[in-house]
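USER: Note each token:
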Amino acid sequence: MPNEFLNEYEPLLIKEIRDTPRLKFPNKSLLLAACAACIGGTFQYGYNVSVINAPTEYVQTFINQTWRERYQADISEHVLTLCWSTIVSIFTIGGLIGASIGGTLSVKLGRKGTLLTNNIFALLAALLMGISYSVGVFELLIIGRLVCGINAGIGICVQPLYLGEIAPTALRGAMGMFTSIFITGGILTGQVIGLRQLLGGEEYWPILLSTTCIPAILQLAILPWFPESPRYLLIDKGDNERCKKALKQLHGVADCDGEWDDIEKEKNNLLGFEAMKPWDLFADRSVRWQLLSIILLGAAQQLNGINAIYFYADYVFKRSGIPSEKIPYVTVGTGACECLTALTCGMLIECLGRKILITGGYTLMSICCILFTLTLTFQDASPVVPYLSMACVFAFILSFGLGPGGVTNILTTELFTQNARPAAYMIAGSVNWLSFFFVGLVFPFMVIGLQQYCFMFFLVICFMVATYIFCVIPETKNKTFLEIQTEFKSSSNGKAVSVDGAGANLLSTSI
């Protein structure tokens, strides 16, 4: 009987094994192209978010010194605070400007062309911030940070677009995780270089702020050796030869035919359609659920409490008995923790899928919000409680890196087809930067008003987003962009089915 069973089902088992997608690894050219795109893209974003923290005291001293030389009087505390907060927060205004033009540039100049052109902003920012001290003009720091933000806004908009379009379907999730890995790598690098033993000393802070030119120079030296996005070349430009050449270089001769067929199907499906503008996307009812999804995910990425955790980290570390001079090293540990989690997520995403990771990440963050509120409330109840708070800090960062930190940008790539994708990134990027600015503006007042109970607000955000993802967003692993689009349409149509006595009627829904 067992032999008969095997004889009957062996051909089916062999076929099933053959058809099951195997774990693939990117070839060297694809890997290097991704790294070259990221080093001048989202690495710059992470680096410039963290590197500004180290020279806070020295920059404020420089502002006061410059003010005294100009007006023969010390600057008032309020004006000094305003100048410093402007230097820090204007980065988000620049990011919003960059995100709003990044999609348009990616259509006109191409994905690779936009990334290379974007380095002009990084080099200009490095020059302005580097000479600010020697010429005695602190306003150059404000302009430099604005330009830095434009560079980061364009990079975080266009670089994930490039990665999503050069990656084969089976590796799209893992390649998309490069965005998160390089953001966290940039944050960690900024924390390490900002230590007093390196460039965090008083005499080195202008050099520290001008080091943003190094990733730009590296990208200008490496990225030109790799091709433009094959999807852009074929669908947007209609250049068959360059598309085939790009696919062979990025995927190898053996694997390029399948990707060519996939791109050609998408091109045929989009015949007669031009690249959409953001307002076109808002008017298109066929992508309303995808659009709502990326808006919610983009806002939640900043409003989920990760910034609050970093804000409270110093307080928690001090209460845990860590000496003040050692706290910068523990902070580096939090950056390393997030970077390690992003790497782990990159290895798991093609096995577990996007939906499990991002839903699980937000669920774990919800639990951490409850635990962190309790431990902060009862800090003095026992000597052990501060250490529990410290464990909550690391657990929250791990949960964020496991899903929301990395998967959000991948979903923005996967939920839209070629003609809508740049506009989708412009909208998602703008929402992300506006939320970033909102958190920076409102969060200090939330802390004053609610204290540790502000995490109840973040609990509601995390829980609602986890529920929305579970109910609305389909799994996108190992699916082509057209398959994902079709699944979204069928699922949204399913939501609009109403059953009455005569049968099922398809209703038109709008949001």
In short: Residues 227 and 246 are 5 Å apart (CA to CA).
